[in-house]
Amino acid sequence: MRKGKYLTITRLLMLLAIILIIISSISNIVVAENTITSPKNVILLIGDGMGPNQVLMAHDIKGSNLYMEDMPYKGMLSTVNAVGGVTDSAAAGTALATGAKTRNSYLGMNEDEVFVSNIREFCVRHDKMTGIISTVKITDATPAAFYAHNVVRTEEALIKKQLIESNIDVIIGPGAQNYSTPNNLVTGEMESLEKATILAIEFLDKGENGFFLMVEGGKIDHAGHSNSIEQCNYEVLEFDKAVKAALEFAEKDGSTLVIVTADHETGGLQKSNTSYKFTSPNHTGVDVPVFAFGVGASYFTGRICNTEISLKIKRLILGDSLNLLPTKAVPVAAGIAPETVVPEAQESNNHALWIGSFSLLLLCAGGIGFYILRKKMEGKL
Ligand SMILES: [Zn+2]
Q: Do residues 285 and 79 make contact, with C-beta atoms less than 8 angstroms apart?
């Protein structure tokens, strides 16, 4: 009677162990496919108004590749706003920062006037230090898209209040001196965008969990609006030196993702034969370039939507490669439906990892039980 009972239990345990081994193997395969190396640090450099011809013209003036052009992964970004029109810096900055298309003038709010979290805030929630640098006012639309949430981009008082409340670790740019706090690196002084980038990286690299840094070359846009070829070249080359600083750090560090892109093109810069000329005083709807280097850089290729930048960064940080591809449909003309916002609930989807771990735990428990029973039987029979 006793012997039969033990044999039945033993057989059941063996069957359970086999089932668990199978479950565990399947789970491990799923986990392996779903796991990628996450960048520890992310540096996003935005040339405001820097279309493909602005890069090409600066290349011609320099007589060789810009640093950004030597980055290994390249693509193009569509910049159309939520209603299918030419974007302003607020809607474009919001798309880049939050992954949500919106209307012109909106900052950190989607087209339905709903608050959308930005990639810098996401990084704060993941214990990363964060910084923003701009050559234009730190409350201007592009930098503000990384901390502000308001449908009117020009409501300076509110945007200032949101900047203070955001407690960003590094703020460098005109006007920043008004937001100084004892533990943060905050300065309105900037020798050059390159020096500011080096200074910010040195400060942010002290954090254990990495950092997110946004660097804006804001005056490329001004050159486009005033149709100044000379200023445009100067600003793009200055911006490119900041790219160099970011790349030098990333190369040495080995765990950083560097992305260089633009929010939109300004001035309708065109090339005819060997000369360039601006054809508009405004922003245009042409695609802008994106260049990527480092951990996860290979995901930033092809023609993608500007909302994809922060969505891909988020997913890379989460180590969530399955959701990185394929890329969503890209709006190409007026009236095409905007992207939807990715809910925060999607932030964790490591179910497979949990199943795998739990199965292994059960397998161990089953094995130990089996061993004890065997010993017991051997002793008693
Ligand atoms: Zn802009």
A: yes
